[in-house]
Design goal:
- The chain is mainly β and 358 residues long.
- It is built from one helix and 26 strands.
């Protein structure tokens, strides 16, 4: 390899074996971009030599079977704009708390950082590059309170702090600085212990919002109807209550809606969106009849209304040929056939002609 190379892309190149500190790779002192992702380096440790590329702007070692502790020398890469270290297996890699904080403090040019599935036993310091567009710290060992400054990073597009139940936080009560930029937000598993604040409705650029199992309480704020670009909305396994806002089924871009395992009540609302393909409202206290407007949802492929208090007839002809999976549990209280019948379970993996169903 020539020592004057500025870019080395060996992603998914079938590389195997170990990378030692005396590897010729580390003689490429002019490198600006290095991608070794999706290879198999046989549980090699991440060498401190990776921190000695003075011009490096992009480093990707993700999913390449590295293991052990990430060296503090990574924080010496002062020009780094993109850092991806997510391991092949959960907790194969670890960051010492001091080194993690040092990295965030020193790498002031970072735009993308993916440390997901790395064992980081640390709090989150309130120090981040203002240039960040992607911050993925999902499934790590982080604990403590999320600093509110994260929600005000002006260029942030993707924020993932999901599934670390030791994290807690509060939604900003005012407009977020990332309002215009944030596209994907996943805070699943973070303990908010709070009402669902109106400020979420300011995030009008969101395409995906996941707040699963966040201990959220109270009703869904009407401001959520401002999210006209939202495609995936996951609010399951909380303590949300009240009625589901009727406008939620009319959000023009919404494809996946998961509100299951909450305490929603009231009548089941009409469906007015052709974009929805997945709806899960199971394990709530909804009542009433399945609205006839559901027959207009030609793209609907999954509907789960199990464990509610719905009643009435189910007209299978409502559902289009594209419908693949329908689950009802204890929702029908009177006759579906010529004799009285309590329907306990109906699973239509594909459309069947049930002879006595209306």
């Amino acid at each position: 390899m020539t020592g004057h190379a500025i870019e080395l892309d060996l992603q998914l190149n079938g590389l195997a074996g170990k990378i030692d500190s005396n590897s010729s790779l580390f003689q490429l002192s002019h490198l600006q971009r290095l991608d070794l992702s999706l290879n198999n380096f046989s549980n090699s440790h991440v060498s401190p030599e990776f921190g000695r590329f003075p011009s490096l702007m992009h480093l990707d070692l993700s999913n390449s079977n590295f293991s052990g502790q990430i060296p503090s020398e990574i924080s010496h890469l002062s020009k780094l704009q993109s850092l991806r270290l997510s391991p092949s297996l959960v907790n194969d890699l670890a960051f010492a708390a001091h080194d993690f904080k040092l990295l965030l403090q020193n790498l002031t040019q970072l735009r993308e950082i993916d440390l997901s599935f790395i064992n980081i036993s640390s709090t989150i310091p309130p120090i981040f590059s203002s240039h960040l567009t992607t911050l993925d710290l999902g499934n790590t060992g982080l604990y403590g309170i999320i600093p509110e400054s994260i929600f005000h990073l002006p260029n942030l597009e993707t924020l993932d702090l999901s599934y670390k139940y030791e994290l807690s936080g509060y939604f900003p009560k005012t407009q977020w600085n990332s309002t215009a930029s944030l596209i994907d937000l996943d805070l699943s598993g973070v303990n908010f212990s709070d009402n669902f604040l109106e400020s979420i409705g300011y995030l009008t650029s969101l395409h995906s919002l996941s707040l699963t199992n966040c201990n959220l309480r109270g009703p869904i704020p009407e401001s959520l109807m401002n999210l006209t670009r939202i495609e995936d909305l996951n609010l399951q396994y909380n303590s949300l209550n009240g009625t589901i806002p009727s406008g939620m089924f009319s959000l023009p871009s919404l494809r996946f809606l998961c509100l299951d395992n909450n305490h929603f009540s009231g009548q089941f609302e009409d469906f007015n969106s052709n974009s929805l393909s997945w709806i899960d409202l199971s394990n709530n206290q909804l009542k009433g009849r399945l609205p006839k407007s559901i027959k207009n949802h030609v793209n609907l492929t999954y509907l789960d209304l199990s464990f509610n208090n719905l009643s009435g007839h189910v007209d299978v002809s409502f559902f289009s040929d594209s419908f693949r999976f329908l689950v009802f549990h204890t929702i029908v209280s009177h006759s579906l056939m010529k004799r009285k019948l309590n329907l306990l379970y109906l699973n239509l993996l594909r459309r069947y002609d049930w002879p006595h169903v209306k």
